């Protein structure tokens, strides 16, 4: 049995769905199905019962799932110890400086438990670079938000956060239970600097060209609203701070938290990071 095939099996067994497992593994479904069938031929038993409703584990499959997880964990530890002995056990993580995130804290705890000998180097970026340095080759993996130009990158969505309009508390619109983008059409918005990723800029401007003060960081966004009465979009779960309010926007797509990395990068620490991130953000 190859470790890669075991990873495929664990993904299907955990997702209980070939389509979701293929998406998680960033591969198409047919080769995944063939790999699982070959694995069943190797062990001489049916591991998964397929039906239109999805997939269920057979008793043999449940045993293999436990063993496969243990083997994959051991393989990861072996790689970490060898890398540590070679002085190469480091991972550079880019983080978008948009606020503290409890899921990111859980991820840090999980990663440290799994990889106690790996040194994590953090590069926090402002709102002008949603790739957190990936395009520039400054980080191995990024915890960030979409959308942005993902040419040459792979993305895995971790969470979708509803968004709202950031307003002064004395703004008449702050008294509303909900708003639409049309309610904000005649207002000044905070903007990111010229040259910022167009997809990123467009999302945070509600898909329309806007006018207003230029900002680079979350605190600058809030201060622009507080001092100038401008408006913008922020995540509903973030505390806006004194003097500010957030009103849900009913016609805005949620802000999607993603892990991003360079396509084709086979660093096993990145794969482990993604698995742990899925756990941390999914609980």
3D architecture notes:
This protein is an alpha+beta fold and 283 residues long. The protein has helices at 3-15, 18-25, 29-43, 59-85, 102-114, 198-204, 218-228, 268-282; strands at 48-51, 54-57, 90-96, 119-125, 141-145, 153-161, 163-168, 232-235, 244-248, 255-262. Strands 4-3-5-10-6 form a five-stranded mixed sheet, with helices on one face. A three-stranded antiparallel sheet has the order 8-7-9. The protein has a two-stranded antiparallel sheet with strand order 1-2. Strand 3 (90-96), helix 5 (102-114) and strand 4 form a beta-alpha-beta unit. Helix 1 (3-15) packs across helix 2 (18-25) and helix 1 (3-15) crosses helix 4 (59-85). It is elongated, with a radius of gyration of 22 Å. The model has no long low-confidence stretch (mean pLDDT 90).
What keywords describe this structure?
283 residues, 5-stranded mixed β-sheet, alpha+beta
Give me the strand/helix succession: HHHEEHEHEEEEHHEEEH
Distance between the termini: 31 Å
Going across the biggest sheet, name each strand in turn. 4-3-5-10-6
Strand content: 15-25%
> Averaged pLDDT, please?
90
Q: Largest sheet, described in full?
A: 5 strands, mixed
- Tell me, what's the shape? elongated
- Count the strands? 10
Q: What is the radius of gyration?
A: 22 Å
Helix content: 25-40%
Content-based structural category: alpha+beta
Individual helix count:
8
């Amino acid at each position: 049995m190859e470790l890669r095939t075991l990873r495929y099996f664990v993904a299907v067994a955990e997702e209980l769905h070939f389509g979701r497992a293929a998406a998680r593994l960033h591969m198409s479904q047919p080769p995944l199905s063939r790999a699982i069938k070959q694995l069943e031929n190797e062990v001489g038993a049916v591991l998964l019962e397929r039906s239109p409703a999805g997939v269920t584990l057979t008793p043999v499959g449940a045993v293999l799932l436990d063993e496969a997880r243990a083997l994959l964990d051991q393989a990861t530890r072996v790689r970490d110890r060898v890398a540590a002995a070679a002085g190469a056990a480091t991972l550079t993580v880019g983080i978008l400086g948009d606020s503290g995130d409890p899921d990111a804290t859980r991820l840090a705890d999980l990663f440290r438990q799994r990889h106690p000998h790996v040194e994590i180097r953090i590069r926090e970026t402002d709102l002008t670079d949603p790739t957190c340095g990936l395009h520039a080759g400054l980080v191995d993996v990024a915890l960030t938000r979409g959308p942005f130009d993902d040419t040459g990158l792979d993305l895995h969505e971790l969470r979708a956060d509803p968004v709202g309009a950031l307003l002064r508390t004395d703004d008449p619109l702050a008294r509303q239970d909900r708003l639409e983008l049309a309610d904000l059409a005649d207002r000044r918005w905070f903007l990111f600097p010229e040259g910022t990723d167009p997809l990123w800029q467009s999302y945070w401007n509600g898909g329309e060209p806007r006018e207003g003060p230029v900002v680079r960081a979350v605190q600058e966004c809030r201060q622009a609203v507080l001092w100038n009465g401008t408006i913008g979009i922020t995540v509903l779960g973030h505390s806006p701070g004194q003097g500010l309010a957030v009103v849900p926007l009913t016609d805005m797509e949620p802000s999607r938290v993603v892990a991003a990395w360079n396509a084709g990068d086979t660093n096993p620490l990145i794969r482990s990071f993604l698995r742990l991130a899925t756990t941390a953000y999914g609980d």
